[in-house]
Amino acid sequence: MTADLTTARLTLRMPDARDHASYSAFFADAEASRFYGGPLLPYQAWERLAADIGHFMLKGFGRFVIEKDGQVIGGCGILDVDGWPGHELTWWLLPAARGQGIAQEASRAVLAWAGTELGWPRVETHFRDENTAARRLTESLGGTKQRRETFPDGIDRDIYAMPTTEKVSA
Amino acid sequence: MTPTPMQIVETDRLILRRPQPQDLDAFTAYYATDRSATTAGPLDAPAAWKAFATELGHWQMRGFGMASVIEKASGTLIGRCGLWYPGGWPEPELGWTLYDGAERKGYATEAAIAMRSHAATVWGLPHLISIIALGNTRSEAVATRLGAQVESDWTSPAGRNARIWRHPKVSE
Questions:
Q1: Which of A31, A45, B85, B90 is deepest in the core (most CB within 10 A)?
Q2: Inter-chain CB proximity A46 and B88 less than 8 Å
Q3: Which UniProt keywords apply (chain B) (predicted)?
């Protein structure tokens, strides 16, 4: 069982059955979920949630849900699906939670956790070329481009790495 | 919630226990073959990994799930049997899948009878269904041996055509 992560405004905890409504809401939004395999129907969101829970059981890490003021507003963590080229720092936010620096705050907590609890010196991520928001966030976390790869879905993506230490350039 | 013990049921020839990370390889091998067509396969390795993670998460979310079936004589993982109740399902179903080489030994029936009793007495689910893909005659034969009867046609949320079979109610 992975302990909760806490920041000034947020709690990051392992997902569980209570989170189906939040997953369904996010993945029902075609615009919000377009870089996450969405939109998804509620039964598919259930499967995604179950897979996120199982990910923690298989790997010892995974994608947390983000709570703010007792409400789930998104998710952030590290996914490492077998068969894909490497792991990724990933985050998702309900539309109402955007524009408040929450993805960055949650990502910093996950990076620090990866350094101290997993012992990783750096965490990678990748995104589609058109996902400029992801690129900006990654760069704000000190991420630098490492390489470019063709993924199993046939799409080329840049792979970035971010340090897990406190020394993150603004 | 009380954690489910690792071992769930033991029969004459089988042990049913919660799935473990090391069960992934047999799961992936099964989903690489066309035999998995009756259980939403075939799946490539990344998709099988996600499906296996989903099975583990199912246990966490529902408190029950598909167990790994171990042949006692050999210690080999030979398939899955248990309750499957993902989003979009009408109610929990009793399911069984045997991996290559484990068929025609009565293992599916033996596992399903034990799991059906366990579901009634421990999980409070005495009147289960099974959802069987159209054309899966081997599973239909198992369902018939278990005393289940066809209740209705059903189309899964993903659009797969199946029939709902209803098992006899397990009395205390």
A1: A45
A2: yes
A3: Transferase
Query: B61, A49: Cβ pair inside 8 Å?
Result: yes
Let me know if domain A5-163 sits in CATH 3.40.630.30.
yes
Residue B59 lies in a domain: yes
What separation in angstroms does the CA of B19 have from each of B53, B58, B61, B71? 10, 11, 14, 14
Cα B46 to Cα A85, A86, A89, B56, B86, distances in angstroms: 11, 12, 18, 15, 20
Across chain A, what does the average pLDDT equal? Answer: 93
User: Chain B within 8 Å of A53 (Cβ-Cβ)?
Assistant: yes
Number of domains in chain B: 1
CATH number reported for the structural domain that contains residue B134 in this entry: 3.40.630.30
Are the C-beta atoms of A148 and A158 separated by less than 8 Å?
yes
* Residue of A53, A56, A59 to mutate for B, most B C-beta atoms under 10 A: A53
Would you say residue B2 lies in a domain? no
pLDDT band (50, 70, 90) for residue B4? low
pTM (predicted TM-score): 0.93
Are A57 and B54 in contact (CB < 8 Å)?
Answer: no
Which residues in chain B have their CB less than 8 angstroms from residue A43's CB? Answer: 86-89, 157
In this structure, chain A runs to a length of 170
What domain range is B91 assigned to?
7-166
Answer yes or no: is B67 within a domain: yes
A16 CB neighbours in chain B (<8 A) are 60-61
In a domain, B171, yes or no: no
